[in-house]
Amino acid sequence: MKKYSIGIDLGGTKILMALVDKETGNVLYHVKKKTKKHKGPDNIIKKMVEGIEELLSEKSINTDEISSIGVGSAGQIDRENGIIIAAPNLECYNLKIKEILTKQFNLPVFVGNDVEIAAIGEQKFGAGKGCDDFVCIFVGTGVGSAIVKNGKIIYGATGTAGEIGHTIVDLNGRQCACGAHGCLEAYASRSAIEQRIEGALKKGRKSCILEYLEPGKSITSSMIQKSIEREDELVLQCVTEASEYLSGGIASIINFINPKLIILGGGLIEAVDYFYKKTIKKARAKSLPVPAEKIEFKKALLGDYSGVIGAAFLEDRGF
Length: 319
Hints:
Layout: E1 4-10, E2 14-21, E3 27-34, H1 41-58, E4 66-73, E5 76-78, E6 83-87, E7 92-95, H2 97-105, E8 109-113, H3 114-125, E9 133-139, E10 143-149, E11 152-153, H4 185-188, H5 190-202, H6 221-229, H7 233-257, E12 261-265, H8 267-271, H9 273-286, H10 289-294, E13 296-299, H11 305-311
Parallel strand pairs: 1-4, 4-8, 9-12, 12-13
Antiparallel strand pairs: 1-2, 2-3, 5-6, 6-7, 9-10, 10-11
Helix pairs in contact: 3-11, 5-7, 7-9
């Protein structure tokens, strides 16, 4: 068996690429690049190609030693043909990523959803190890999830199962990036919190987060955490609101799917402990009593590496 694989986690703000040892799950080297989705899909492909070439040159690994390239992307995926069908948070539609990277590197390429790959990584080496019944939820630019039942990911009839971010929480609510109104993602993601804070600042609300913001730059999870540490009223209000919505979405999952474990990850969960703790406390309180008593919560253990490690093992999925 070839020892190495390249895993790529394509997200709304960053592309993380890594050379992974398939025997141990260790990340030997990684490259991180900004997605810059406004520059279009061609730029995303360019960044990925540059990153893969950098990985190969840094470790002086011959492509003969690499079994595959695995890509996890936000959005709806045609896994069999390796196409990103629709990823609104990336502004990508019908992107034939498998075809492009196969031609470029002459290696097998496998494509999956970004939370699917995180679930694979956490199941093999992280918080889901030894558990065959869990839901993995990641909160970042969007809100996504993957369902693992009997040790296998549930894909659904069209391969889009687990889109918790697009469950409707307000029939006449805010517009989501997907085009619909009232999606959970429009209320509970880091992007949603950012929009709420920015809207309040434009209306004259005061906040210490302004001290961390640079002109033209986005609000980050780390800025949110620093502001919470200073007990900033505006940021606490916006984060608490997002937690209220996310906990409701999680309670619905607990009641509907009844998993043993829920793994929470992503930049916002990782950086803002207040958000994580408040969310799981409220989710348990909003769930039916019997599943609420039994459900276990864990943070993703692999952090940023959940996705790239999982992507390195996409070839074992069989697509």
